[in-house]
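RESIDUES AND SHAPES:
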Amino acid sequence: MATTDPDDSGVVTKPSSRSVPDTVSRLSDLVTTKGLKVFAVIDHSGEAKGRGLDLRDTKVVIFGSPGAGTPVMAAAPLAALDLPLKVLVWDDGGQTKVSYTAPSALATRYRLSSELAGRLAGIEALTDAVVAEGA
């Protein structure tokens, strides 16, 4: 597993051996396979390029499950600022990275019970599977 601890801002970053497009595709496929919904893929670098601007390959995959997220937002309405979940897939000097806000950071930010926090924890295993070698 490629799990790393969250940084001071609560962000976890994991390296991927795949390209940014291949990592985004793998993440989207795994999300769908798990019965979750991909709400959007935001292509920041593509939009920048369309405006004549340079930006490293940068995409955000927004996904989740209304069944998991709704109780969190019902208990803590401001959690809607961070839900659905988001994973940033980006190029860092030729190394693809996968970054997201740690579930523990979200739980602390919104003072979630352990039961509600558990609804967000699946992002850990999902991103581990995305960056797993040979999978």
